[in-house]
Design brief:
Layout lengths: L1 H27 L11 H9 L75 E3 L2 E4 L2 H17 L1 H10 L2 E4 L5 E3 L4 E4 L1 H4 L8 H23 L7 H17 L4 H12 L17
Parallel strand pairs: 2-3, 3-5
Antiparallel strand pairs: 1-2, 4-5
Length: 277
């Protein structure tokens, strides 16, 4: 009996010693520093086996940077103005048209402004020349053309070629060469109010028709139709025509003075802005 009790006590003592040894052994393997308790990592390792390292997620390629439109550039500090468009070509003027020149004046006093376009309707027609105006003007113009036809035939032929319309205006006598229209102011058509000087007035008016027909001729033959040389040429033809139709000596002398004194600014009527005739 005593031997059995002693054997049982020995077994219990051995179990206690074995448990003490296990505890001490666990404490020597390393822990978390708190009374020899195993760390969470040790427990996981002991119970779960080796840790599987998760595979890293595949790295996505970065989205490509969107390139700016070819026509746009990054905005600089100071915005650049838009590209300048090439200017529209200037239309080329028609080769058949020329700019309306300043109408040449009647040589009585000063040059004439550019008259308006000739009217479509004619009040009279003198051998192809359209006459526009009141009855008194039509009569005076027909008389002047008849005088040239009878007494200065060569000049009359030039008038027929280079004047298509003769029209009455209040003032501003002159030749619009582009459409061959001679505008005649009252002072040019009727320069003298006295009845006794009616013929002198008619002679003078007829000579101015020759003068302005010359400017039209200059233009249509490619010669200068304004300026000193053009005026001197027109004055010379006017003087010859005036001599042929029986003009007064003082009228002819007046034209001669203008021709010879063309370089004198006081005689350059074509530069006078006060065109009242």
């Amino acid at each position: 009996m005593k031997k059995a009790v002693a054997a049982g006590i020995g077994v219990l003592l051995g179990i206690v010693l074995l448990g003490f040894g296990l505890t001490a052994g666990l404490g020597c393997t390393g822990g978390d520093g708190q009374g020899g308790r195993p760390s969470l990592t040790q427990i996981e390792t002991a119970t779960a086996g080796p840790r599987v390292t998760p595979a890293a997620s595949p790295t996505l390629a970065p989205a490509p940077t969107t390139e700016p439109l070819a026509t746009l550039a990054p905005s600089p500090t100071t915005p650049e103005p838009p590209a300048t468009l090439a200017p529209s070509p200037t239309p080329t003027a028609s080769a058949t048209l020329a700019p309306s020149p300043t109408a040449e004046p009647s040589p009585t006093l000063a040059p004439s402004p550019t008259p308006g376009a000739a009217l479509a309707e004619c009040d009279a027609d003198f051998e192809g020349i359209c006459i526009i105006g009141a009855d008194e003007f039509v009569t005076q113009t027909e008389s002047a053309l008849s005088l040239l036809k009878e007494e200065a035939a060569t000049h009359y032929q030039d008038v027929q070629t280079h004047i298509e319309t003769i029209r009455s205006v209040e003032a501003g006598s002159g030749m619009r060469v582009v459409d061959k229209t001679y505008s005649v102011g009252k002072v040019t058509a009727f320069p003298y109010s006295e009845p006794s000087r009616a013929r002198d007035g008619l002679n003078w008016y007829a000579s101015t028709i020759v003068h302005d027909a010359t400017h039209s001729q200059e233009y249509w033959t490619g010669l200068p139709h304004s300026g000193k040389e053009a005026e001197v040429m027109a004055l010379e033809k006017q003087r010859v025509a005036l001599e042929e139709i029986g003009g007064a000596g003082w009228q002819i002398d007046y034209l001669t003075g203008l021709i010879e004194g063309a370089d004198d600014p006081s005689n350059q009527y074509w530069n006078n802005p006060n065109r009242h005739w």
